[in-house]
Specification:
Elements: E1 8-12, E2 14-17, E3 23-26, H1 29-37, E4 41-45, H2 66-77, E5 81-84, H3 92-104, E6 108-111, H4 113-123, E7 128-130, E8 138-139, E9 146-150, H5 155-160, E10 164-167, E11 169-170, E12 173-175, E13 182-187, E14 192-196, E15 203-206, H6 218-231
Parallel strand pairs: 1-4, 1-5, 5-6, 6-15
Antiparallel strand pairs: 2-3, 7-12, 8-11, 9-10, 9-13, 13-14, 14-15
Helix pairs in contact: 2-3
């Protein structure tokens, strides 16, 4: 097979359903658009098991077989970086893919639920709590919702180049605990808004949605630019 001349960015597929309630796997337009506009190839990584993921409880989905794991490894091996998009449920196939990418030191960018998945992997259990602060973190259709403070000495601080930025927000739960990851950003109510893994070159999560802001916000563009810059090193 001929090697692609452009970077391939794997984006985890999100189980959903269509208007007739049939199970589908989605790749949200915003993620596809930002990767395409960064001159890279967006590549959806779907679940391979023959299961109606959307209409099946996560604890009722059969365990992965070895042949499935091998396929996931081969799909990740094709990629120069991985994006974990937002969503509503965390699945074992997604965690397996992300764990393998981290093990291989492939750049990973987790967004909203994607950041929560990284924290879940870090703690090996559900570490989420419901938002109950004076800031409404679940507001749709707004360019900006609240400020976040960037922690000094983090990769995120080097990317952003300032101590505070304004972000959008669309989440009802937040990360309550970290183990190996460090906090890179917090909102004014103390909620963790950014995390990163200091032992790897680029494993980062943000609680907001930079993919919805990249057309009008320079700092969100910087996050994707740094991610792509690190992806270029994957096969070098």
């Amino acid at each position: 097979m001929k090697k692609a001349t452009k970077l391939i960015i794997g984006i985890l597929g999100i189980p959903d359903c269509d208007s007739e309630k049939y199970s589908i796997i989605t790749l949200y337009n915003d993620y596809k658009n930002v990767i395409f506009n960064k001159n890279c190839i967006p590549f959806m990584i779907p679940p391979v098991k023959d299961v109606d993921y959307f209409n099946t409880k996560t604890n009722e989905i059969p365990e992965m077989e070895e042949k499935e794991k091998q396929i996931y490894k081969e799909m990740v091996d094709m990629c120069d970086g991985i994006i974990i998009p937002g969503g509503y449920r965390i699945y074992e196939f997604q965690k397996y893919i992300v764990n393998y990418a981290i093990e291989k030191n492939i750049p990973v960018l987790g967004i909203c639920m994607g950041m929560q998945m990284l924290a879940n992997i870090d703690n090996d259990y559900n570490c989420l709590e419901k938002n109950e602060t004076n800031i409404n973190h679940s507001e749709t259709g707004k360019k900006y919702v609240h400020n976040v403070s960037i922690m000094n000495g983090t990769i995120l601080s080097k990317i952003i180049g300032k101590n505070e930025i304004n972000v959008n927000s669309k989440h009802r739960y937040h990360v309550s605990k970290l183990n190996n990851f460090v906090v890179s950003a917090r909102s004014d109510d103390g909620i963790i808004e950014g995390i990163e893994l200091p032992t790897k070159r680029f494993i980062m999560g943000v609680q907001w949605h930079p993919e919805k802001m990249y057309t009008y916000d320079e700092y969100e563009n910087k996050i994707f630019d740094k991610f792509i810059e690190e992806c270029k090193k994957t096969n070098n």
